[in-house]
Amino acid sequence: MNADEERQFREFVAARSRSLLHTAYLLTGDWEQGRDLLQTALAATARRWSKLRDREQPEIYVRRALYHAQVDRFRLLSWGRETVTDTLPDRPSAQAADWADTVAQRQDIMAALRRLPKRQRAVIVLRYFEDRPDAEIAAILGVAQGTVRSQTHKALASLRTTLAGAGPSGASSTVSGRGVA
């Protein structure tokens, strides 16, 4: 990678890291694993930066790398499910009680999202959290648009069933149409 390509790559990373990290978090369900996943995808992209055909849209390449790296991580038997924390809270803060319903609902949604198969989860993240059209999702995942639509249908049905059974904090109205919260 020459100096100009390195500058372009650094500019891309600076401009898109926040959005890509959010996607990685949604794919993994954990911020630390999301950071690791993003780092893996960016390292792979950096190695191939000079060979990218369409340098105007490297984000599609990185998002595909995120998806494939996530699938690879699940395949590794050594990949653990650790939760990293600096300190354990002794007692909840006053603000935590005010946000209890919101937090419970968000946890129910994230738990339901984590239970989806990897491809269905990726389709839901790309469509509803990133608001991407079918054609772009199909390009990122390397599948047909019809597959995107069928995976979306199956994922939404599964989420509705799971969240309806989660009780009041997981109301089924949360997953309707394009309004997943």
Q: What about the largest sheet?
A: none
Fraction of helical residues: 55-70%
Report the count of strand segments: 0
The overall pLDDT, averaged over residues, is 81
Detail the poorly predicted runs: 169-181
Number of helices: 8
Radius of gyration, in angstroms, nearest whole number: 18 Å
Strand coverage percent:
under 5%
Shape type: globular
- Along the chain, the helix and strand elements come as HHHHHHHH
Distance between the termini: 41 Å
What class do helices, strands and sheet pairing give?
mainly alpha
Kindly describe this structure.
- The chain has helices at residues 3-28, 31-48, 58-75, 94-98, 100-115, 118-129, 134-141, 145-164.
- It is mainly α.
- The longest helix is centred in the first third of the chain and has 26 residues, at 3-28.
- The chain is globular.
- The termini are far apart.
Task: Provide a compact summary of the structure.
The protein has 181 residues and is an all-alpha fold. The chain contains 8 helices and no strands.
Keywords:
globular, about 180 residues, single chain, about 0% strand
